[in-house]
Amino acid sequence: MSNTNYRRGALALLIALALVATACGSGSSDDVAADSSTTTTTVAATTTTTTTVPPTTTTTTIATPEAIPIEPPEGYELVWNDEFDGDTIDLDNWTYDIGGWGWGNGEAQYYTDRPENARLQNGLLVIEGRFERFEDNYYTSARLKTEDLQEFQYGYFEARIKVPEGKGMWPAFWMLGSSFERNEANPIEANWPQSGEIDIMEYVGREPDLIYGTLHGPGYAGATGLGQRTKFKDVATDFHIYAIEWDYDGIRWFFDGEQYGEKSRDIVGDRWVFDQPFFFILNLALGGTFPGPIGLDVEFPKYMYVDYVRVYQQVS
Ligand SMILES: [Ca+2]
Predict the structure, then answer these.
(1) Residue 122's closest CA among 309, 302, 308, 281?
(2) I need a labelling partner for 183 at 20 to 30 A (CA). Which of 31, 36, 215, 257 fits?
(3) 83 and 31: one domain?
(4) Coil, helix or strand for 23?
(5) How far is the CA of 124 from the centre of ligand 1 (A)?
(6) Any idea what the CATH number is for the domain that residue 259 is in?
(7) Do residues 251 and 125 both lie within one domain?
(8) How many angstroms is it from 244 CA to the middle of ligand 1?
(9) pLDDT in tens, 140-160
(10) Are residues 27 and 111 in the same domain?
(11) What is the Å distance from ligand 1's center to 221 Cα?
(12) What is the rounded CA–CA span in Å between residue 284 and residue 304?
């Protein structure tokens, strides 16, 4: 999910397209050239843009889905979970990534920590993608993480999630290595992918029947990540359980309890970086190089619902 290099080309393309759109949208550059015999101040006036963003609608959410009891896999026990049953997000478990710089992927949203974008309702974590002007962005959403709060090495990790459909939607349940560090002065710079990334689930609305599970590390990041995907019709119409089983030997991916992929440490030799604690990230990105542009027919707000996150580890 997190990435820098291979997506920069597309980001540059998006910026170029935006510049072209701005130039065309002003509808005045020709007029300026024709009417002005000098290059004086008329340009500033004609390039003023007005942007109308429709008001956001009142939020709605779905009812609590039928409960699934906590049931550790054979040989495992529950070591941590968040069922999202309270009134407010538990800040002993979660913190926020905040900002609108594209997150290395040309993403369109500004991530906030406002309840408009992330809250608990009906026993669910609700992440809401909104079409609204915020700072320099035209969309908002949320990205929650357990960094420095809940980090785990090895185990069986699962979340029950209902993803939103629609072109440009990019919900994800994933992990970064606890050694991950971002350069605050230049956030695109980080020690990724050396720090490692485990994508338990990625979903892009333009491929509505596909679920992606991927590893990123040194020499196998971004477009060359070690991935697999599984096909399931109408993924976005219901809750599903997305999980991995991770041990010293490798990582295996599950969709509703069925294994659909496996990556063993042997395939990358000493470039395997999955022997340290990792933290969780839950987010709904909007647009960007992996999902592509947000569809013109997409109706906001969009919701990603998470019923729980559960961590099991082997009984010692
Ligand atoms: Ca719940």
Answers:
(1) 308
(2) 215
(3) no
(4) helix
(5) 5
(6) 2.60.120.200
(7) yes
(8) 19
(9) 999 999 999 999 999 999 999
(10) no
(11) 33
(12) 7
If you measure from the C-alpha of residue 301 to the centroid of ligand 1, how many angstroms do you get, rounded to a whole number?
21
In this predicted structure, what is the pLDDT of residue 301?
97
Confirm whether 71 is domain-assigned.
no
- Do 155 and 213 sit in the same domain of this protein? yes
**Domain co-membership, 131 together with 220:** yes
Side-chain-side CA neighbours of 305 within 13 Å: the count stands at: 20
Q: What is the pLDDT of residues 107-145, one digit of tens each?
A: 999 999 999 999 999 999 999 999 999 999 999 999 999
Total structural domains within the chain = 2
Whether 214 and 289 share a structural domain: yes
pLDDT per position as a tens digit, 234-275:
899 999 999 999 999 999 999 999 999 999 999 999 999 999
Question: Which one is catalytic: 83, 107, 158, 202?
Answer: 202
User: Is residue 197 annotated as part of the catalytic site, yes or no?
Assistant: yes
Residue 112 CA to residue 135 CA, distance in Å, equals 11
Instruction: Read off the pLDDT band of 25 (50, 70, 90).
Output: very low
C-alpha 101 – ligand 1 centre gap (Å): 31
Do both 89 and 200 map to the same domain? yes
pLDDT at 184: 87
Query: Does residue 56 sit within a domain?
Result: no
Least Cα distance to 173 among 214, 201, 196 occurs for: 201
pTM: 0.83
Residue-range definition of the domain harbouring residue 23: 3-36
Residue 45 lies in a domain: no
Distance 66 CA to ligand 1 centre (A): 9
Asked if residues 283 and 99 have their Cβ atoms less than 8 Å apart, the reply is no
Among the options 107, 128, 158, 197, which is catalytic?
Answer: 197
